[in-house]
Specification:
The protein is mostly helical. The chain has one domain: Up-down Bundle (Ferritin), CATH 1.20.1260. Helix content is about 75%, strand content about 0%. The longest helix has about 30 residues. It is elongated and about 55 Å long. The two termini are about 15 Å apart. Bound molecules: hydroxy diiron-OXO moiety.
Length: about 170
């Protein structure tokens, strides 16, 4: 059985992960409006991953007899100054999410909640990857600078990203 504090903070985390998806959909819409369809595709794949993250918390609360309570989402930002500004905002958001995961891991330790601790380990590793993949895009766009040709090449490259399943089949409840 999940403890009340862990249940409540995981419910909060469902909101944060779903907001991540919402924010990345908003960035995808921004990129489409600039005819950068590859970057839009990258963001849509990222948004889909975020739904998977929300679903992992949803399933964890449910599997442990807790109460799932969905919360209201804020409206995400809709415009950015440039493609690199959008990716920098995505990195800033991922750093925020990493902090939330670390807080959850700390709570799991404090409450001696081993089941949550094991589940959260996946997220600790995932956040390293999340920050790294956005940083790599930022590095690429910094190299390209203001070159229109370079931005189009980067757009083509980022459009190769394919969204995987929301959850791997073995984790679907
Ligand atoms: Fe869920 O990792 Fe990004 O936000």
């Amino acid at each position: 059985m999940i403890g009340k504090r862990m249940q409540d903070v995981m419910n909060e985390q469902i909101k944060h992960e779903t907001f991540s998806a919402y924010l990345y959909f908003s960035m995808a819409a921004y990129f489409h409006s600039k005819s950068l369809d590859g970057m839009a595709q990258w963001m849509k794949a990222q948004a889909q991953e975020e739904f998977g993250h929300a679903l992992r918390f949803f399933n964890h609360i449910n599997d442990r007899g807790g109460l799932i309570e969905l919360q209201a989402l804020d409206k995400p930002q809709t415009e950015w100054e440039s493609p690199i500004a959008a990716f920098k905002a995505a990195l800033e958001h991922e750093v925020f999410i990493t902090g939330k995961i670390n807080d959850l891991a700390k709570l799991a330790d404090e409450e001696n909640d081993r089941a949550a601790g094991i589940m959260l380990q996946w997220f600790v590793t995932e956040q390293v990857e999340e920050e790294d993949s956005v940083s790599t895009v930022i590095d690429m766009l910094e190299l390209v600078g203001d070159s229109g040709h370079g931005i189009l090449m980067a757009d083509r490259e980022l459009g190769q990203r394919i969204a995987g399943p929301i959850l791997p089949p073995e984790e679907e409840a």
